[in-house]
Structure formats: C-alpha cells, structure tokens
Amino acid sequence: MKEKETFPIDRPQLLVLGTRNASKASELVQVFSRLPIVLRTLADFPEAIEVAEHGATFAENAALKATLQAKHLGQWVLGEDSGLVVDALNGEPGIFSARYSGPNATDATNNRLLLERLEGFPLEKRTAAYVCYMAVADPQGVVRGESWGSCKGRIVFEPRGSNGFGYDPLFEVVEYHRTFGELSALVKANLSHRSKAAYRLMPQLLKLIEQTRR
C-alpha cells in the first residue's frame, strides 16, 4: 500500500487539482508540472467531497470547489469551472454545460441537445466560446489566487473527430478549420480555455510558493 504523503499544511508543496476527470487533469498537469510542487487529483483522495455547484457564475463555482474542498482535505486545492457559451443561445449552456440535457446527461446527449437548439442557424450565427475560471484556496479555505481563460470558435453542424471530451467534436477553432475533436491533445493544450487560465495562474502560484517557503 502506498504510504500517504504529508506536507506542512501552510505550505503549497502539494497542490490538489480539484477534479476526478482524467482528461481535465491531464490538461492541467501539462501546465502545472513545471511548478516545484507535487500534484495530485481528487482521485487520490477517497475522502474528497462532492461540492454542489450552486454558484451563479463560473467564477463562483470555481471558488466553491476550491474553498470547500481545501477546508475538508486540509490541503491547497485548485478548483475550476468551465463550459461552453453560445452567443445565439444567450450564453447557454454556460454553467450548466456538463448537465445541459438533464441530471443523467452524457457528452452525446448534451451535444445532441445543442445541435437541436441551434437548428436553422447558419454557420456565421453559431459563434461560441469555451470559458474557464480557476481559484486556488489554502487549507483554511481562503482563496489565494484566481484566473480565467477563453477560446473563441463556432459550433459546426455535426460532430467531427474523436479526441477530447464534452462539446469538443462540435467546437471548431476557425483559424485551424478543425474542431477540438480533430486536433491533437498537444495542439488543444496550447489553445484551450483551460490551459490559458492555468498559464495565467502560474505567476500567482509561483509567488505563493516563494512566500510560504521563506
């Protein structure tokens, strides 16, 4: 059995990436692995709680995930909330992106509903953006860093590609003429809303690490 790692809770030597989603975790690790700290995900903490996402915005949900989980685990935690915002649908699915088609939503049912809602809209009216907000909380549940990122694109008429997850097969990056479902993980990592938010958070994390190691 693997021995549990212990670190002084006032020092961000360990950062818990607040997700159990392997695809999200992979994107985050690609960026944060450059930091001089140990990275873990909620999958490494069986005692982790499920945080109700009852915030009205991505930013509020990210802060909830970070602060409540950090206090529960006694660790530094990064919370993130992200989703798809479609202009023609007045910002839908927005903060409900993961459960757009109901409590038992899947990527397939969400994509199907999105296409139904956009039926009749020409390509030029199907503009959209992926949005991501991040918050980092210390073990006392205090937010110590925040960032956001976005990636603009448009929603195509049918799924293309099998890479990624969520709405990726429908989300086309216009400059590349490819959906996220068609782009490699490496290319997506350089373009995605999540990676942009992560890179914007890096200077704040480095500053926190420096401050708490003095």
Spatial strand sequence of the major β-sheet: 2-1-3-4-5-6-7
- Percentage of residues assigned to helices: 25-40%
Alpha-carbon distance between the two ends? 34 Å
The CATH topology comes to: Maf protein
Characterize the structure shown.
With 214 residues, the protein is α/β, with parallel strands linked by helices. It has one domain (14-212): Alpha-Beta Complex (Maf protein). 30% of the residues lie in helices and 22% in strands. The chain has five helices and seven strands, in the order E-H-E-H-E-H-E-E-E-E-H-H. It has a seven-stranded mixed β-sheet with strand order 2-1-3-4-5-6-7. Strand 4 (127-137) and strand 5 (143-155) form a beta hairpin. The longest helix is centred in the last third of the chain and has 20 residues, at 193-212. The protein starts with 13 loop residues before the first strand and ends with a helix. 38% of the residues are buried.
Question: Topology, please?
Answer:
Blueprint: E1 14-17, H1 22-32, E2 38-41, H2 58-73, E3 76-86, H3 107-117, E4 127-137, E5 143-155, E6 171-173, E7 178-179, H4 185-191, H5 193-212
Parallel strand pairs: 1-2, 1-3
Antiparallel strand pairs: 3-4, 4-5, 5-6, 6-7
